[in-house]
Amino acid sequence: MSKQFPTYHCDMTIEEIGAEGNRYIASEWRALYESMYVQLTAAFLEIEDAAYGLFLDQLMPVVFERMEEAGFEVTETLEEDDFVIGKNLIFRNSLEKWGPEDNRSRVFWNVVRNKQGQPLGTLLTDIPHSHLKFDIPSAPVFYTIRESVKEQIIQGIRQLKE
User: What is the residue range of 62's domain?
Assistant: First the structure.
């Protein structure tokens, strides 16, 4: 079965961008998860949560690459000690405060800008995962908010999750 790559075009709203990302994730994540499960379960024993990064490094890059091809800017200037997974998910732009140890939620954020550099809003990537064993209990999900300033983004995430 061929991958159902995300399709973006330059006049999409932030909500349409999120919906297209969710369509792609819903169609691809489970097969990838199952194909990598043995490898990632073993990796989890050694590197714990970093095993989720290995999964996201396979799942997420096409989303960001296709957005960039359509003319959106989703990258941020990296700082020296930044840790990045999945091409554009930066740990300093994430929060993990919700859920029990076997179904935690880490939410990353990426401000999305158009070709003119104007922010359209923020793409929130919610990654459910377990701290007890390698397990992704449900599909990663994109949410969108119109805010593009860090304090407002954090407030938007809290409203979403609490």
Answer: 14-161
How many angstroms separate the CA atoms of 30 and 146, rounded?
Answer: 29
The token pair that represents 1 in the structure block = 């079965």
Domain count, the chain: 1
Tokens 């709203």 belong to 13
pLDDT digits (tens, 9 = 90+) for 74-132: 999 999 999 999 999 999 999 998 999 999 999 999 999 999 999 999 999 999 999 99
Closest CA to 153 of 62, 71, 92, 82: 92
SS3 65: helix
- pLDDT of 2 reads 57
Task: Using only the alpha carbons of the chain, give its radius of gyration.
Answer: 15
Q: How far apart (Å, rounded) are the C-alpha atoms in residues 90 and 48?
A: 18
In a domain, 150, yes or no: yes
Q: How far is CA 37 from the centre of its chain?
A: 19
pLDDT in tens, 17-48: 999 999 999 999 999 999 999 999 999 999 99
Q: Tell me if 99 is assigned to some domain.
A: yes
Rounded CA separation 53/17 (Å): 23
Does residue 118 lie within any of the structural domains? yes
pTM attached to this predicted model = 0.95
